Structure formats: C-alpha cells, structure tokens
Amino acid sequence: MKRSDLFFALPSAIPSLPTPRFINLRGSESLEHETGSIACELTQGLTAQAAALPPKFFYNTLGSKLFEAITVLDEYYPTRTEAGIFQAASPQIAGALAQAGLNHPCLIDLGAGNCAKALSLMPVIRPRQYVPVDISTDFLRDAAGQVQNSFPALDIVGVGMDFSADLRLPDEVQLHDRVYFYPGSSLGNFQPAQALAFLRNMADKAQGKARGLLLGIDLVKDTATLQAAYDDALGVTAAFNKNLLRNVNELLAADFDVRQWKHVALFNTAQSRIEMHLEALSDLTVTWPGHSRPFLAGERIHTESSYKYTVESMTALLTQAGFSQVRQWTDPQQWFAVFWAAA
Fold it and tell me: 63-94 burial, b for 16+ CB within 10 Å, e for fewer?
C-alpha cells in the first residue's frame, strides 16, 4: 500500500476546502502589537545583568535550515536515535492510541519544522487532520505542501504561531481527539517549572484540549557525548547559534557583528542541562533604537538551555501535569526516550 492511499478510506477524509490551509497567527491585525512585544522581549534579554535571548528566535528561515543540517551530523545523536525508537516501537505506539480510542485523531505537530518526523509516523497514527505548528511561517508553508503531496486526501491546517506563549489554536483545528506530537526533546528548552505549565496548558480542557501526547525526550548521559552534540566539528551548530544574532538584527534593528562572537556549549551538571552561549571576542557595544549594551571580552549571551531528564523524572512531570497511562520506550543505550501519555 502506498502512503498516499492510507487516507482514502477514512470517512470525511477529503476536506471541503483545498488544503493545505495555512493560518498565520503572526501575520494578523495584531502584527504591530506582536512586533512591539518581540522588541520588548529582546530588549529585556539584552539589557539584563546576565544577557540572554530566547531560543525560539533561532528559527528564522535560515535558522530552520541550519537546524535541519544539524540533525544529520555524526555528533547529533537525538534525531536518529529518536527515529530508531519510533520505528521499533511503532506497533506499541499504535496500540496505545487504539487503547485510548484514538483511531483517527487530529495530530498537532508542535515545532513541526520540515514535518519529516510526523510524516514517518502517519501510517502509525493515521490522523484525520494534521496540524503542523511552527514559529517559522515561511518554512512551515513549504513543508506542509510537501506533506500534502505525499497524502493528498489528508486535511492539513498549517498554523504559524509562537505556541510557547499560547496553545489556543484557530477554529479550523478540530476540537476532539487531539494528539499532540512534540519530538526532538524540544520540551527541554523550557525551564522545569515552565515545562510543567506548558504541559498543563496542553491538557487543559479550555486551552490545549489534548487527548494524548507523544513526546521525545533526551536523557541524561555522559558529558562528552552531550557537549559534542551541541558543538560539532564542522561548526554547523556554531553557525546556527550565531544566526540568532542576525535574526535579532532584523527583528530589533540592532547592529550585532557575528564575527565578534564565538559559540560556547557546555553541560551544567548541577542543573542537568546543556547551555549554549555566544561569547564576545573583544570589548564591544551593541546598539538598537533607543538602547545600547556594552559587552566586555569574554562576556556571554545565554541563548539556549536544553534540560536532560531521566525516565523517572519525566514520568513524574507528566503525571503532575495531569496526564496518565504514561508509557515509554528507549533505545538500547538509553540515550533517548519516547513517551506516550493520555489526558
């Protein structure tokens, strides 16, 4: 059976409107307000005593493509390890969804990127509707179109939005049988308290309305392996990190010179997290409308934290957030885990 044949037998599988439909919540009449909010958020981060920038701003079009390149690097084990787990555990994952009565759910793919991970799981999850969500709207539009080519009868609603701030989806997304898909250990970018709040919003009956969650999580392991995954020999991750400054220049009309900064990645054992920083190579000053910030040589901007969990700590977090029937599958080395949880 071809993948594209999978959905022709579904009741009401062919939507009444041409798909993929695309809803850009970042391009609505609130754009001026959002632009001001982004400027405020970036300014607060840059003027803080310890400067920091939110990792969601990695993902402009170039940043999304650079991250796609990172996922195929030898050092970056999470993507291939997670894919191996999905492949090996697909019968059990299908069984978990069936046990929850989710035969043809609405699959909501958070941080969808190129949609490749969801694409490989379509025969397992068999969704009636697919909702890729990403902050990089142009990149998402192209990716959603490629999924439609593979599954012509599937109803696809692409949503451009910052889901880290709000999980309320547009009316075009079906309300029932929602299964959230959040792979790649992206939940690790949240601080633990923020991760708990995010998961609670997902399970909330008034906001996320989740019936289930399929989640990929990177596990604690030796420091050398962790740090190499975020500081590859080719320097792709360094380019990805520095591109954040180019995006800030565009969003904030700032004057960062990426040549004046170096990429730093380290594992903070006490907080069980990988940290990425950009370190000033010399004394310098960055300016943007109405503001400036001096940096001394060696001073850093914290650009990402990626928390690493144990199976036990993530199970506890999901339970605390209101999920139940938690199941997990790992690779033979126990480097990565895929969780299923019902809500």
Answer: bbbbbbebbebebbbbbebbbebbeebbeebb
**Residue 149 CB partners (closer than 8 Å, separation 6+):** none
Contact 217, 339 (CB under 8 A): yes
Tokens 């009565």 belong to: 101
pLDDT digits (tens, 9 = 90+) for 131-180: 999 988 778 888 898 899 999 999 999 999 989 878 999 999 999 999 99
Give the model confidence (pLDDT) of 279-323 as tens digits.
999 999 999 999 999 999 999 999 999 999 999 999 999 999 999
Task: Out of 5-9, 120-124, 162-166, 298-302, give the one with best mean pLDDT.
Answer: 298-302
* Cα–Cα distance measured from residue 47 to residue 92, given in angstroms and rounded to the nearest whole number: 49
Instruction: Report residue 251 as tokens.
Output: 């969003």
Burial of residue 226 (CB within 10 Å: 0-12, 13-18, 19+) is buried
Cα(51)–Cα(42) distance, integer angstroms = 10
CA dist., res. 188 & res. 56, Å (int)? 13
What is this structure's pTM? 0.88
Please give the radius of gyration of the chain, using alpha carbons only, rounded to the nearest integer: 20
Taking the C-alpha atoms of residue 187 and residue 313, their distance in angstroms, rounded to an integer, is: 13
Chain-centroid distance of CA 144 in Å reads 16
Phi, psi for 116 (deg, rounded to 5): -65, -40
pLDDT digits (tens, 9 = 90+) for 210-256: 999 999 999 999 999 999 999 999 999 999 999 999 999 999 999 99
